Amino acid sequence: MVSGNAAAQRALTLAARYPAAREALEFHARLATFTGDWRELRDLVAAHGPRLLRETAANMSEFDLKAAVDGYLHGEDRRHPESFFARVMLRHDPPQAHRAHSNQCPQCGEPPGCACLRKENDGSAFFLVCSLCSHEWRFARTQCPACGGNVEWHVAEGMDHILTQACTQCARYLHVIRADKDPEAIPEVDEVAAIAMDIWALEQGWEKIHPNLIGL
Ligand SMILES: [Zn+2]
Ligand SMILES: [Zn+2]
Description:
This protein is α/β, with parallel strands linked by helices. The protein has eight helices and seven strands, in the order ααααααββββββααβ. Strands 1, 2, 3, 4, 5, 6 and 7 form a seven-stranded mixed sheet that branches.
């Protein structure tokens, strides 16, 4: 697993490179090294978080957090702002997967947050990256991880190491980080830099398979 410091460093490097995603990446850098309890997380969000999360944090009790963690483990809507807090707290203590399907993390059973290509022999190998614990596992690059349908790949403008993979059947998408092209890439961090592609995908009527920590 990538260390929090390496992830934070990468987020700050990308923040300088992609101004449109600067705020999201700077917030992500703080989260990457966060290891405190829920009160400290609430304070961090109150001081540095995006507006929606700040408002949620202001009204959140420990009871609410426990309810959110419970909901998260039962697969409740991950776009709900409370699920953000559950997810940050669960990262350090992910659940055990019980017979995960091939489109779920073999370690913790959660869906992929993004995918990556890594150098292998003369070509590359395709991996899905867990939305919770960042574990990577092999998957067919021609198949939609949500429904098994066919996918199309789109190139992000001005970001030649990120692709967007969209399903022609269920209209779900995720970003594919080309670690084969940029060996410095850390998939779950680089994924946050692709905000422009998220906005474009929303305009196409697509829905991300699993939102990232920033809620996109
Ligand atoms: Zn996992
Ligand atoms: Zn699909």
